[in-house]
């Protein structure tokens, strides 16, 4: 792997992948622990907080709201909670950078505070639609201004009332933003889920002492609950682990073990997809920490099978689809990977469907693109020049597949991996050495 000064990584083909690795702390859980610690009573300690730029943006936004956050000598995060409703009016706009999670979840929190907050982001985030969080928060009583439903969001918060909300598109971020607003609202707030999404927010709320009511149709919280400070450890990110799963599963004779991975039941549907694709998946040492299941996972090459992601399961593996595409591209010619029901990919850090299709076509795969997904047919990978479109997951996806190409592959915009996985290319070089 070679890096040039112009933010381009060059991937050299390899024939093996082997070793142990520990992935960065889970982004989704890191965001939630930091935000709940900020509105809890007392001082919380968070170990293993994600080192990526997205989660750093959450910390900077919380500091802008008056939350004191420090690092201990051992690297743990120390967060001085201000209590529910106790945040301070920011002196300047809060910058979520490229993090949609930061913007949507934090919007729910500040909507319950009686001051004005402006939340903005980088050029990519300012293009992403926010109506799905603006609409329910407005119904709860907040006043929100946004240009065509896009950031920056100007939020005039205050007294909120509980509502029942059924998102038109399944989204853990929207669900979470509404539930966090519900903590600051009068009465009960309920989010109806026809298709379940990841439940990190519900588990984190319970870890901080809140009562969450769950049933087959949704999740409910009562307003006015207080949160208690906690000492928590963030498990490793299964979305980061998925790239090593594809590397091992797509490289004959390879095996990679990942320690301390989060194995939340709402996140491990991707393991079933890997098994359907022929990858050997073994779990060990599983235990529970703050309501989150954690353990080690060993991925190994076994066989190669065409596979699909159906519309009903797409919301549960939405972040892992680029990694799955890398596995599919590495398979013997003629194998296919089809995704449907994943239109949400078009409004991520990039239009992930179009950018992914363009990149894999440039490397030699055949890709048919749909409005809500794609079909990738594996063909001999030639290598070439690809553009990650500033999207961390695409940069990692192209890099993994490029290890099995016939020639070198250059990836433009590859430094975007720092959003979620600083040091990714160093780990890739170590595992394929």
Major β-sheet strand ordering:
1-2-26-25
Q: In total, how many beta strands?
A: 26
Shape assignment = globular
The largest sheet is: 4 strands, mixed
Distance between the termini: 10 Å
Gyration radius, in Å: 21 Å
Helix content: 25-40%
CATH architecture descriptor name of the largest domain: Alpha-beta prism
| Poorly predicted runs | 1-5
CATH class of the largest domain: Alpha Beta
**Roughly what fraction of the amino acids lie in strands?**
25-35%
What can you tell me about this protein's structure?
With 433 residues, this protein is of the alpha/beta class. It has two domains: 2-25 and 236-431, Alpha-beta prism (UDP-n-acetylglucosamine1-carboxyvinyl-transferase, Chain), CATH 3.65.10.10; 27-233, Alpha-beta prism (UDP-n-acetylglucosamine1-carboxyvinyl-transferase, Chain). Helices cover 29% and strands 27% of the residues. The chain has twelve helices and 26 strands. It has helices at residues 27-38, 53-64, 100-110, 131-140, 172-183, 200-207, 238-249, 269-276, 321-330, 352-363, 392-402, 424-431; strands at residues 2-4, 8-11, 18-21, 43-47, 68-71, 77-80, 94-95, 116-120, 143-147, 150-156, 160-161, 164-165, 185-186, 188-192, 212-215, 218-222, 231-233, 255-262, 280-289, 292-300, 307-309, 336-339, 366-370, 373-377, 384-387, 409-412. A four-stranded mixed β-sheet has the order 1-2-26-25. The protein has a four-stranded mixed β-sheet with strand order 3-18-20-19. Strands 5-6-4-17 form a four-stranded mixed β-sheet, covered by helices on one side. Strand 23 (366-370) and strand 24 form a beta hairpin. Helix 1 (27-38) runs parallel beside helix 2 (53-64), helix 7 (238-249) runs parallel beside helix 11 (392-402) and helix 9 (321-330) runs parallel beside helix 11 (392-402). It is globular. The N and C termini lie close together (10 Å).
């Amino acid at each position: 792997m070679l890096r040039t000064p112009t933010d381009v990584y060059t991937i050299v083909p390899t024939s093996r992948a082997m070793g142990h690795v520990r992935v960065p702390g889970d982004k989704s859980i890191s965001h939630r622990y930091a935000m709940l610690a900020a509105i809890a009573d007392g001082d919380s300690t968070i170990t293993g907080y994600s080192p990526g730029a997205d989660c750093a943006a959450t910390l900077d936004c919380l500091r802008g709201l008056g939350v004191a956050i420090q690092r201990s000598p051992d690297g743990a995060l120390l967060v001085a909670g201000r209590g529910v409703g106790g945040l301070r009016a920011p002196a300047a706009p809060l910058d979520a950078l490229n993090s949609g999670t930061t913007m949507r979840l934090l919007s729910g929190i500040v909507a319950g505070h009686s001051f004005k907050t402006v939340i903005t982001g980088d050029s990519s985030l300012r293009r992403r639609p926010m109506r799905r969080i603006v609409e329910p928060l407005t119904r709860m009583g907040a006043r929100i201004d946004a240009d065509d439903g896009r950031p920056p969001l100007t939020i005039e918060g205050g007294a909120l009332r509980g509502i029942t909300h059924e998102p038109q598109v399944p989204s853990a971020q929207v669900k979470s933003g509404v539930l966090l607003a519900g903590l600051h609202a009068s009465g009960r707030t309920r989010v109806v889920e026809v298709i379940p999404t990841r439940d990190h927010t519900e588990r984190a709320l319970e870890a901080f002492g809140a009562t969450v009511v769950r049933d087959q149709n949704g999740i409910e919280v009562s307003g006015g609950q207080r949160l208690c400070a906690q000492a928590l450890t963030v498990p490793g990110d299964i979305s980061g682990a998925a790239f090593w799963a594809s590397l091992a599963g797509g490289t004959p004779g390879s095996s990679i073990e990942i320690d301390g991975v989060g194995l939340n039941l709402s996140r491990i549907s991707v393991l079933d997809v890997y098994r359907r694709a022929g990858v050997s998946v073994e779990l060990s040492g599983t235990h529970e920490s703050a309501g989150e299941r954690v353990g080690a996972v060993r991925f190994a090459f076994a066989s190669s099978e065409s596979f699909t992601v159906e519309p009903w399961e797409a919301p549960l593996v939405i972040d892992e689809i680029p990694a799955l595409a890398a596995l599919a591209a590495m398979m013997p010619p003629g194998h296919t990977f089809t995704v449907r029901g994943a239109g949400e990919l078009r409004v991520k850090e990039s239009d992930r469907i179009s950018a992914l299709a363009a990149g894999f076509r440039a490397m030699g795969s055949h890709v048919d693109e749909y409005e809500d997904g794609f079909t990738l047919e594996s063909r001999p990978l030639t290598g070439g020049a690809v553009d990650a479109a500033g999207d961390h997951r695409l940069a990692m996806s192209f890099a993994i597949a490029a290890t099995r190409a016939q020639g070198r592959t250059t990836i433009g915009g590859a430094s975007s991996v720092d959003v979620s996985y600083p040091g990714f290319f160093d780990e890739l070089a170590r595992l394929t050495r």
